[in-house]
Specification:
It is built from 4 helices and 16 strands. The protein has helices at 48-58, 102-115, 173-176, 202-205, and strands at residues 23-25, 31-33, 40-42, 67-70, 73-76, 80-84, 89-90, 93-94, 121-127, 135-138, 151-157, 160-166, 188-190, 194-198, 206-210, 221-227. The structure holds 2-oxoglutaric acid (AKG). 2-oxoglutaric acid (AKG) binds next to β9, β15 and β16.
Length: 231
């Protein structure tokens, strides 16, 4: 976590230049990838003091853990989560949404201003300290949000690498056989307080992942993905 020098300050010093070299700056200070499943990346979406405050509050959420049945065994997922908004069915499990909190509503409103979309649902992932928590290659199914809408992803805490990769197959084949996947893009380092947007339709033609890392001292990370369930 970056340290805030003066908690009473009203304006926060700009963050250091983003380390994402595969992104081009736009006039408004946001960045867009030239060739990837991300259509917008803004490293300064949240002022640092707000990002620190929101991270501290969200870390106290009552986290849940998905399990997946494999070879007759319940395998726990390598991350924790909490869901807000419209009830989905994920990994065969009907999820009871948590009530929106002041912090999730605040971020929802900021995302609304930045994207023009008032998303009705939110998945929050918690990657515990240590760097081993991760999410493998996948695209988000329509049961987790309509593909006709973008997915807006806000990151807080440890900087972790996010990758996208195109695929060309269709139906289940494209998920099963790696030969249907294109080359992975250069990873985008999702920074504390950043916003990344995967555009409408991208879940059909891109997969994404957040890799585990062996980097010593990797702290906790919270990722909020806003989705539209009932357009
Ligand atoms: O943590 C991230 O940045 C990615 C989260 C993700 O891929 C998902 O929730 O489907």
């Amino acid at each position: 976590m970056k340290q805030t020098q003066n908690t009473n300050q009203t304006s926060v010093a700009p963050k250091p230049e983003s380390s994402n070299f595969n992104l081009a700056r736009t006039k408004r200070g946001c960045m867009t990838t030239m060739k990837s499943g991300i259509s917008l990346y803004d490293p300064n979406f949240l002022p640092q003091a707000d990002a620190d405050r929101l991270f501290a509050a969200l870390e106290k959420l009552p986290w849940k853990r998905h399990t997946m049945k494999m070879y007759g065994k319940e395998i726990p997922m390598p991350r924790l989560y909490q869901w807000f908004g419209v009830t989905p069915c994920i990994y065969g499990e009907t999820i009871t949404p948590h009530e929106w909190t002041p912090e999730t509503l605040e971020i929802q409103e900021r995302v609304h201003k930045a994207t023009g979309v008032l998303f009705d649902s939110l998945n929050v992932n918690y990657y515990r300290p240590g760097g081993t928590d991760h999410i493998g290659w996948h695209s988000d199914g329509e049961e987790e949000g309509s593909w006709e809408f973008p997915i807006a992803s806000v990151s807080l805490g440890a900087v972790r690498k996010f990758q996208t990769r195109p695929y060309n197959g269709n139906g289940k084949l494209k998920r099963r056989f790696h030969k249907f996947f294109g080359e992975p893009d250069v990873p985008v380092a999702l920074e504390h307080g950043s916003l990344a947007v995967m555009p409408a339709g991208s879940q059909e033609s891109y997969v994404h992942r957040l890799k585990a890392t062996k980097q010593q001292g990797t702290g906790a990370r919270i990722n909020l993905t806003f989705r539209m369930m009932r357009p």
